[in-house]
Model the fold of this input.
Amino acid sequence: MSRLTVIIPTFNEEHYIEGALYSVKFADQIIVVDSFSTDKTAAIAKAHNCQVIERQFDNFSNQKNHALSYATSEWVLFLDADERITHALQKEMENVMATGKHTAYKLHFPHFFMNRFMYHHHNDVTRLVKRDKCHFEGNVHEKLIVDGTTGKLKNKVLHYTYKGLEHNLKKKDHYAWFQAEQMQAKNKRTNYFLLVFKPSYRFFHEYIVKGGFLDGIPGLAVAGINAYGVFSRYAKLMLLQRGLK
Done:
């Protein structure tokens, strides 16, 4: 059995996908699960001899679980088109896959925005896992369920997540509808107090508690964008409650 399969979900990522593919060319198998892109994403992936699977998008968990069923390696790495694996991280991954101390590993993601990496705005996300020990659950912020222990790698993933203010505001609005519908399905409700408090707390937590102010203007901008995302979610939930969608 080969050692590593990389799964990359895509939709109109022609400007980013090639960089991601170059960064994981050491993998034994690369699967691009594409939601019928209207640009050159699929063509670029095929030119790099990737296995391209086209599937109509319904939610993130189903998309990744579908791609997972095509994986043939012992280990799977889930990567987005705007993420890059460094050489140092590659070597660290190869080492932990060989030793097999844990079933899965979290990767460290400092975000890149306004031409700089923001080391006080980051995520630690489980992305490297044994193929037969995992599956995804959830529709919007999908959760990787792991049967076993999880470790953490030291080297960083390069994450070019913020593609501009307009792009990110549209992305927050798009996700907000999914999140609001999930909240409504769980019988959660909102009011004007939550509409003000929740975004304010998100801004305070990211900018002050997590030290976003140390990232300068980019840190301020990202804290503001994420606070807006929370506001949009609760505003849309209020619209759903009133039957106004």
Q: What stands out?
A: Residues 165-241 form one domain.
